[in-house]
Amino acid sequence: MAEASRSEKYTGPYAAQQERYYRLFGGAKAKARDFSEATGNPAALDEGLIRSRETVPGGWAHALPLARGETLRVVNTQGTPGVSLLLYNAKDKSERFNAGDTVKIQWNARLSRGRVLFSDMGRVLASITDDTYGRNDALTGGSSRTTNAARYGDASLRNTRDNFILLASKHGLDKRDIPPCLTLFAPVGVDGAGRFRWEGEDAAPGDYVDLRAELDLLVFVSNAPHPLAPGFYEPKDIDLLVWKSPPPPADDFCRTATEEAIRGFENNARYLAALGEE
Amino acid sequence: MTLSNRHEEQAFYDFTVPALRPWSHVVKKGQILRIVDLEGCQAVDTLFYSAADPSERYSAQDTALAQGSPYVTAGTKLISNEGNVMAVVISDTAGSHDTSAGACSAEANTVRFGHETRYMHSCRDNFVLELAKHGMSKRDIVSNINFFMNVPVEEDGTLAIVDGVSRPGDYVEIRAEMDVLCVISNCPQVNNPCNAFNPTPVRTLIWEA
Asked: What gap in Å lies between CA A251 and CA A268, rounded to an integer?
């Protein structure tokens, strides 16, 4: 068959949109930067940079404000299998982390160093500026009374769902405001038969994830094991460090890795300008 | 593929949702809702809320987790944020439906396709307007099921909305396990292949238990 020109290949009232979609689809694979080039942050932070430090016991939860430009380091000090997060725009909490948009916009469910977390408003809430473990899950969520009953035979164990309800209630929100979450240190993949599996070893003591706030945020952290984590229910302590990360350079990896990230940050810039916060 | 033996003329409710439009209806426990993709390759964004207490609603993550797979098909139990079974998919002639990618929105469109798409109709706007009839708002929108939308998740995590697999007349049937408010956006997206760049009507039918 002779090679068809684009005008022949795409027809109908939305031919231009078809052409654009397949160009973007190809570009997402061909033009995205190599995410292994994202250099990360120093493992040892200067004490002078650390604004706050909180140890969250296994099973428990904590909420914290995170100003734009600050970075939350979730330190898995003892290798616990899963820490679940929700992120809200502190100025309008109806804007929040959107798991579906985050994976579909970036054409990828592997959210690790160099990727960004999108809100439901087409803006970037946070950038993953470092991730020493490298596997996080936005497809299967956190634990609940139901999953703990099924998994461990005990619905009374502390769980992410109840943790989020508690945190929401203490910040003027309620269970209606709990969307699908992101779970760090959770190597959930989909095998060739379309089944979820826990892929590989759990996080090691000292692994950490850095999330740089790109808007002023309210962050909920639930330190309860991912429901697919193997083994017994043995959640371990984590440390939450808020540190004053350096201003992102013009060629910041997270802000420039993909066309989608660039457009997301263009939306942030419009929003911040409208708020007079450029 | 799991076929149904129900007859259309015995349905007590039969409505054609025009292209681009939202729809909602309460489906009582035991009743069976059929969604028909009349012309094929038409995404139907679908949410469920407990009719008695709408703060209990469909949970995509709990549904995926419970069945061990990201795809909705015959046999899938639709799980609520309270861990209850809201409904069960009992028939499916298309084979696989997404519940990972959520609904389209004007705001996400600008990021995915370019800022020139900001002023286009979207599923999120359909959901907001339909939920407003029931006293709910944007904050009540959670990740939905995308019936007749094909979003394979590869082993390396790659995920893309690819060409639809449904043919004209394909359908799913869902049996309510509690009284549920079903809310649909007949997806207006024309920037990707989820509607074959041609949004079309779908049909909803409901049978008594």
From this structure: 16
Q: How many angstroms away from the CA of A218 is the closest CA of chain B? A: 16
Given a contact cutoff of 8 angstroms between Cβ atoms, the answer to whether B149 and B161 are in contact is: yes
Q: Give the residue among A162, A128, A124 at the shortest CA–CA distance from A142.
A: A162
The structural domains of chain A, with segments of one domain joined by +, span 50-274
Compute the C-alpha angle B182/B184/B186, nearest 5°: 160
State the DSSP code for A59: T
Q: Quick check: B65 and A140 CB within 8 A?
A: yes
For residue A11 the two structure tokens come to: 């027809």
Half-sphere exposure of A35 (CA within 13 A, CB side): 19
Query: By the CB < 8 Å criterion, does A274 face chain B?
Result: no
ipTM entry: 0.96
CB contact under 8 A, B59 and A180: yes
Residue given tokens 């190599």 in the structure block: A34
Do residues B95 and B75 touch, judged by C-beta distance below 8 A?
no
Q: Is the pLDDT of residue A5 over 90?
A: no
Exposure of A68 in the CB half-sphere (CA atoms within 13 A): 14
**Cα→Cα distances A71→A210, A217, A246, A277, B24, Å:** 6, 11, 9, 19, 42
Rounded distance between C-alpha atoms, residue A211 and residue A4, angstroms: 46
Model confidence pLDDT, tens digit, residues B155-183: 999 988 777 789 999 999 999 999 999 99
Is-contact A62 A72, C-beta < 8 A? Answer: no
